[in-house]
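WARN retry 2 of 3 for item q-0093 after timeout on previous attempt; input resubmitted unchanged.
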Amino acid sequence: MPSLRVQHYGLVAVATIGLLAAASCFLATSSAAQTIRLAVQKTGTVAWELDVIRKHGLDNKVGLTLETLELASPEAGKIALIGGATDIVVSDWLWVSRERSLGTKLAFYPYSSALGAIMVAQDSSIRNPGDLRGRSLAVAGGPIDKSWLLVQGALRQDGLDLSSQSNIIYGAPPLLAEKALQKEFDATLNYWNFCAALEAKGMRRLVDVAELIRKLGLAGRPAMVGYVFNEAWAKTNQQALTAFLKMVAEAKEILATSDAEWQRIAPLVGTTDPIMLTVYRDRYREGIPRRPISDEEADARILYRMLARLGGRELVGPAPELAPGTFYQSSTGQ
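OK item q-0093 returned
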């Protein structure tokens, strides 16, 4: 009977994945037609969706056995995928394109278009991005964080260069979120989930990254994050992959339409505050991709050129353009 099994991999264990890859591949072949191994972090939106899948028996409905490997970080998931210890991870198309340009044929299917925002205090005098001139801006990640580069590229079209006209502070997302509440800087650019928490605690969204980067000529909200898998594996296991994509789409639809489901998963989301849960719910729903793959790919090509120009080889690798084949085309063309 199809089922969902969970395995745990810590930081130390991930280092041994390469040694275990051959064994794991052998074990997977016995039921590869309808078994998928998914590497995820213990917390986050993928974990929410997996809980919905378990609760509603969506894996049984499509005839899948879903094995999850809980990993300590996104980088650990990449190692697991390249090492053959898992079939699917959640990552971004930029990494997929970089790997393809270096010879590893991975593929990407959109998972979420939820992006961050620039947040300010509710009583801040900052009313538009131009007001950030001469102010302190805390940026989650580092100088080549993708959201930060895209924000810079979009605002330079308006003659605003935040990197030189503002006082930039880099830091870890949770630390910056905490310090933002303490008003240790004038504004902060952070990831969507931290922005949702800040919003629920009374901070104001100055501008959403997804809306800001429309200035670059995008047709819609881009899905930066997606399911990533090996192209050869996808061809061999097309039936199982199609079932997986159908299953997760149904889980997303439940979360998109059922407020009661959000009440049920509140402990997993990590809040009992109804205001915060509502903000998480609404921001998650905004980020559910609903566009054709062709549109996503066209926008990704625009964004890639901007990221390549601002981030250089350190970020994108040797290719000046998005690698052909980066976006997976399912059997339905969606």
